[in-house]
Design brief:
Blueprint: H1 3-21, H2 25-39, E1 46-52, E2 58-64, E3 67-69, E4 72-78, H3 82-89, E5 92-99, E6 104-114, H4 117-126, H5 129-137, H6 147-160, E7 172-186, E8 194-201, E9 206-211
Antiparallel strand pairs: 1-2, 1-5, 3-4, 4-7, 5-6, 6-7, 7-8, 8-9
Helix pairs in contact: 5-6
Length: 214
């Protein structure tokens, strides 16, 4: 066996042991996220968000994770967006983080709750000013006739709030995915991957975990 292969096998064993020692999925997730931030070239907090429309047809898109704690996983957007309309109709969602350079992914399924206006306002105030202006100018998910009209709307909003604090736009909001299950997946040679599934026990109010076949 080549020395590089021996090192990979040794590291893989250590990673597996650390993964399966975890008893709290949030602690494990934050550890993986820290490694992703150190190693992923772009947007380590990017996640696929899957929702379902009123006909039962699934929909998926990439969004950015903006907060995580023991209550769940937070992201923001506009209530009138496709995701916002779908979540209002069916407040359940699935998330998927895929860190290609680390050869890992995390899958999350759960219910969704709308954040308080205080939480949303606090986050909105932390955004770059141009992002705040864009939130006012964009009619998210609506038909855009020309890019010029959008850019014109941005400049109109920029003029409107010149020298002033930009307030929270009507309809701009945030959601928290409250997990019922969190699955950690790690690549292994020959597709003999590691999978660890945490599930929330509603009666005991605690996480259970089990190992899955790849």
């Amino acid at each position: 066996m080549k020395e590089s292969d021996k090192n990979y096998a040794s590291q893989a064993k250590a990673n597996t042991q650390a993964m399966f020692r975890a008893n709290d999925p949030y602690i494990l997730f934050k550890a993986w996220m820290a490694e992703a931030k150190a190693g992923e070239p772009n947007d380590p907090n990017a996640m696929a968000l899957a929702t379902v429309d009123e006909t039962g047809l699934p929909d998926v898109r990439m969004v950015l994770l903006k907060g995580v704690d023991a209550r769940g996983f937070v992201f923001y957007s506009h209530a009138s967006s496709a995701k916002g309309v779908q979540l209002k109709h069916n407040p359940k969602a699935a998330l998927n983080f895929h860190w290609k350079s680390l050869r890992r992914q995390v899958r999350i399924r759960g219910t969704v709750e709308t954040l308080s206006k205080l939480e949303v306002g606090k986050y909105f105030a932390s955004r770059p000013r141009d992002s705040q202006l864009g939130a006012w100018a964009s009619q998210q998910s609506k038909t855009m006739k020309t890019r010029h009209l959008f850019e014109e709307a941005i400049e109109n909003v920029r003029h409107k709030f010149s020298g002033a604090t930009i307030p929270l736009p009507p309809g701009w909001t945030g959601w928290r995915v409250v997990p019922r299950s969190i699955e950690f997946w790690r690549d292994r040679p020959f597709r003999l991957h590691d999978r660890l599934l945490f599930e929330w026990d509603m009666d005991k109010k605690q996480w259970t975990k089990r190992r899955l076949y790849p």
